[in-house]
Structures are given as structure tokens and as C-alpha cells.
Amino acid sequence: PAPDVDNQECGEHPVPALPHHRCQGPVVLRCLVLLAVLVAGYSYFTLLVGDTGTRLERLGLFCSVFTISMYLSPLADLAKIVKNKSTRCLSFPLTVTTFLASTSWTLYGLQLRDPYITVPNVPGIVTSVLRFWLFWWYPRGQDKSH
After folding, report:
1. pTM over 0.90
2. I need a labelling partner for 35 at 20 to 30 A (CA). Which of 28, 66, 114, 136 fits?
3. Residues 4, 123, 137, 8: what is their CA dihedral angle, to the nearest 10 degrees?
4. Carries keyword Repeat (predicted)?
5. pLDDT tens profile 56-91
6. Could you tell me if residue 142 is inside a domain?
């Protein structure tokens, strides 16, 4: 089947060349803000935190927050999925990959007894299981809202 070029349900639209699309300004601004956060974080850890142990602990916490955010981000469309009774917004291959990656990192973290690896990857397992359940409850080819 042809890809859904203008998937209103998921809030996705085709993106032509950036200078020709007025709506892309906020996206670029958000990306620049996120890049600034990463640069500020890098600068903080390399320039202001001298003790290696403290640096590693704070860097672990910083990375954990981003990892947890990454695993929770696909659930932002959860209300749309439940309302439309459709999982067209969710990627099944990404769900499988997320489950395998987060499970393997969690097991690795458990072996090392490293909470900075284990803890942030547990939400990846939980959110993947929730998405698997959504795929089962709302089969992809079926849209119950219509």
C-alpha cells in the first residue's frame, strides 16, 4: 500500500523543502533549543564539574532523563489512539526494536548493578508492552471510529 502522505490522525504532514514551508519554523526552533540544552549540558559536565565521580553521577542522571523521555514520547498520541480506536500512529517495528533494546540494556545494567543503565530502560519495557497491548486491542487495519 502507498504511504499515507497526509496522515491527519497522527498530526503528520509532508515536509517539502524547509525554506518553502512556513510551518517548519517552530520545528527548527525546537531543534535549536534542544541542541542548546545538549551543548549547555556538555559544557556543564566538562567545564564546571571537576570531580570525575561527581561528573559521572550527574551525567548518568542527565542521560537517564533523556532516555526516559525517549521511551515515553510515543505515548504522546495515546489519547488519539484511544479516541480513534486505531494504532495507525504507532510504528510496530519501532515498538519491537524499543522492546528488544530496552530489555537488553536493562539486563546489562542489572549484570553491572548500574542504576544509570537499568532504571531509565525499564520505562522502555513498560511502554513497549503497553504499545503491544494497543496493537492487540486496536488492530492496525481496523479503525473503529468510522
Report:
1. no
2. 114
3. -20
4. yes
5. 888 888 888 888 888 888 888 887 888 888 888 888
6. no
